[in-house]
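User: quick one, fold this
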Amino acid sequence: MPNSSEELGLHGENSVQHVKEDSEYVRLVISDDPRPAEGDTLQPEPETRTKSPIRWIRTLALCILLVIIILIFLKWGVPFLFEKVLFPLMQWEATAFGRPVLAIVLIASLALFPVFLIPSGPSMWLAGMIFGYGLGFVIIMVGTTIGMVLPYWVGLLFRDRIHQWLKRWPQQAAMLRLAAEGSWFHQFRMVALFRVSPFPYTIFNYAIVVTSMRFWPYLCGSVAGMVPEAFIYIYSGRLIRTLADVKYGNYHMTTVEIVYNIISFIIAVLTIIAFTVYAKRALKELERGEANGEETSTSTGSGFEMNKLPLERTKHPTSSSFPL
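Assistant:
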């Protein structure tokens, strides 16, 4: 009996050893195990170490190139703009038109340029340079308000085409759709954020018509979002005119005016940065909400599609009417 037990023990050890060898053979030769080998995990480390200095070198080179371009623009570009564009333009507006006619021309340009997707920033600069903070602000707000209503009305006539065009950018379309949902105040807030964000406002005027955005939140939010931008354009226009008068006119700034202009310029830059950062954060939160919605929809088996926009829903006979 002891011999038989010893034979059984030896047989068990041999079987275990064979199993281990077989498993090692299966793991190493057939390689069904998806885990990478030890050498493979150690190989990417030097690649990342070599890539990181290259990335930093590229970033530094781009920063140096950007600084060189800015210095070249300040050295030769700004004087060229003053001599060939701004100063002749100020002389032309002082002699060619009267102030009432020029105010009407500026309002018309601010109203019609967004219809044709033309930026209206130069007109706002001129309004600030010529009319100042009081009348210039009124001209900018009247013209831009008309310029935000006209594309909305025109866009209602081409909703189908705009909807097909938006299918090329589903992420932006999803953001617009989420901005148009919710209460009156939510729509008002989101439109104001889009106005102060880097999102192109001329495209926003047309793209918003394919959503469920109502007209009055769109109009009130657009006006509220244009107020800080109007003051920034007026200030920058006045600053450009002051610099042009100092360089090419007989105007000399005092020390108090120089300090005032420097402080006001810093405040204006910080205001632009603050509004832009706040708007970007709010829109990123909107994107995160959309991403969470997409995850829940994919888990249930239905992803995001453009048919969530109003045009793909069941159309009623009054669907093309003006939404209030």
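User: anything notable?
Assistant: The first helix runs from residue 2 to 30.
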